TrEMBL record:
Identification of the protein by name: Trimethylguanosine synthase
Biased composition (Polar residues): 36-46
Family of this protein: Belongs to the methyltransferase superfamily. Trimethylguanosine synthase family.
Biased composition (Basic and acidic residues): 56-65
Residue ranges, annotated region (Disordered): 1-84
SUPFAM superfamilies, sorted: S-adenosyl-L-methionine-dependent methyltransferases (SSF53335)
Xref: InterPro entries: RNA_cap_Gua-N2-MeTrfase, SAM-dependent_MTases_sf
Stored Pfam families: Methyltransf_15
Amino acid sequence: MGQEQSVTERDKASPSPSVVAGSTLPRSPTKHAGTALNSRIQPHTNRVTKKRPQKIRKDTRERKTIPFGGIPIPHRPPFEPEPKQTAMSIMKPVVGKLPLTDECLHYVDVCEVPQNLQKYFHQRYSIFKFYDYDIRLTNDAWFGITPEPLALRLANDLPSHLYSTPRRTTIVDLFGGAGGNTIAFALSEKWEHVISIERDASTLACAQHNAEVYGVSGYITFIHGDCLDFLDRLKHHPETLDLSLREKCDMSQTVLFASPPWGGVDYKEQDVFDLSTMEPYNLEVLHKACSPMEHALYLPRTSDLRQIAKLAPKGEKIEVVQYCMDGASKAMVVLIPEAMPELT
Ligand SMILES: C[S@@+](CC[C@H](N)C(=O)[O-])C[C@H]1O[C@@H](n2cnc3c(N)ncnc32)[C@H](O)[C@@H]1O
């Protein structure tokens, strides 16, 4: 099954899933024991080979001397130029699955869960409805994951909020994490290509595994790398992206989605969150990295609207959507249109 399958083909190909609140579960989800695919070690053969006695050759090479010192120069191997430093190696999608690591955990009982995560563990079925089917998360991932109902709603709404017509066909989840949004984008069947970038190998392994639990791993292209590096390549050095990525991420067909870490000053403690203090990437850094492409930013619910308004193209409005669960806003999504080249 290729990623390019249309929605209808995909429907036909997959076993009729049971649909629960807009999400699909493979008919018989299996527990994955977290086997490390690449960890098999080939046994050595203990064959003893008899070495031929080596002939001793006389060194006939000419010894050079310093012109007027007379001191012999020690022999050096022939000069070989340093291999040319290639400016950038090619950025490729992950082939197969990254192995699950000791950090890819599935907690069953609250007493196993670190104290600071217990609050999130109690909400595990709001985070992933099918948590019990061996959903894996790193301890860090619990803090940043987009809860499933919200991720599904966002994935389904996003195309209608976008400005570009005709609709774009590729979505790049720049901060893929353990797959909360990525899986929802794939489940929504609104995109021909879903690309998910994550720089932490264990978190990415969780995302791949979780996508498998939801039966959508085959529809997602995972990249293990830095999303800012990816964007720089896409905009300025497309030749350093693997051909398959270049084809899927044609800039005129792609929308970017960014749910960055909300580090820095605790946004919950501020009535209005100053986006210039967000770490490690503040609003300006994110917007600059994503521009000129159409992008959606998933930001704290109290983010400063005056700072966001400054991102609107001259004379235009931009959309800001509050996503709520149980009557309270969880996050704000800001939709920024493609920047048109300035007319001079
Ligand atoms: C808030 S979490 C994203 C959660 C995700 N939306 C979900 O629902 O699972 C942010 C993620 O971005 C990753 N990250 C941070 N900087 C990154 C970068 N420069 N490139 C790629 N991933 C990055 C972190 O490792 C973390 O997993």
